[in-house]
Amino acid sequence: MAQDTLLQLDLAGIRKLKSGKVREVFDLGDRLLIVATDRISAFDCIMPNGIPRKGEVLTQISHFWFAQTQSFQPNHLVLSAEDPLPAELEPYAGQLAHRSMIVRKAKPLRIECVVRGYLAGSGWKEYRASQTVCGIKLPPGLKESSELPEPIFTPATKAESGHDENISFERASEIVGAETAARVRAASLKLYSFAREYARSRGIIIADTKFEFGFQHGQLVLIDEALTPDSSRFWPADQFQPGRSQPSFDKQFVRDYLETLDWNKTPPAPALPPEIVAKTGAKYLEAYQRLTGRTLAH
Fold first, then answer.
1. How far apart are CA 27 and CA 118, in angstroms?
2. CATH number of the domain at 108-239, please?
3. Would the pTM count as exceeding 0.85?
4. Phi and psi, residue 229, nearest 5°
5. Which pLDDT belongs to residue 2?
């Protein structure tokens, strides 16, 4: 296993609250420690080997966007990417470097806030069947990967396991309340529009993305990750061509490889060969470098 790859994490004396597909969440009293591992999942299965430095990329891109948007959208971060770790975490500095966020606790909303600016994935499938996406009527004649006339808010339910399920805005309003649904729709569209314009200037199309929000003392805050290749579709702008699927900055190489195997897409997942790991890792690093203009520090 590559030295830079972190797949599991336990911190002696610090209680782990949750182990997700990618992240480990630890309890620090009134705060949380969120650590992005290098695990990678595809078809809802976690691969036995990871992508070196992937967790660092996800965390540092989130830090970048939180800093870019905090003037108009409060978020849950306590410390910036440059701040030193609290004393109780210093013994684990090597494991946590570049891949950890310390955040205030929030009460998460029970919906995912998805914004789509282009026609892809499940949206493209629905459009072909009914000329709608999540029940929103769209113009005729759009192709796969077409840019939409304007970005649309298409919420989803949160699934503990398996796929999230697309829902209507009306259903989202029933789940979180009409006022909150309207607020997160406006916040999501504003965040996406800001990020899409910025990313386009760096040669990346953000085709769609997923936000999570929560409440802290009555204030609506952006939580979890923000605008990463795991929560968004990132496409290279110089290769964009409507009418087909697009090359991307995420798990594309992993999914394409797995599709060639005689595997039924249920656990246990097969190990990824070195060349697929290397190609995927390079794409994550390129996404970070293009967006920030910086090289990820060791």
1. 38
2. 3.30.470.20
3. yes
4. -65, -15
5. 43
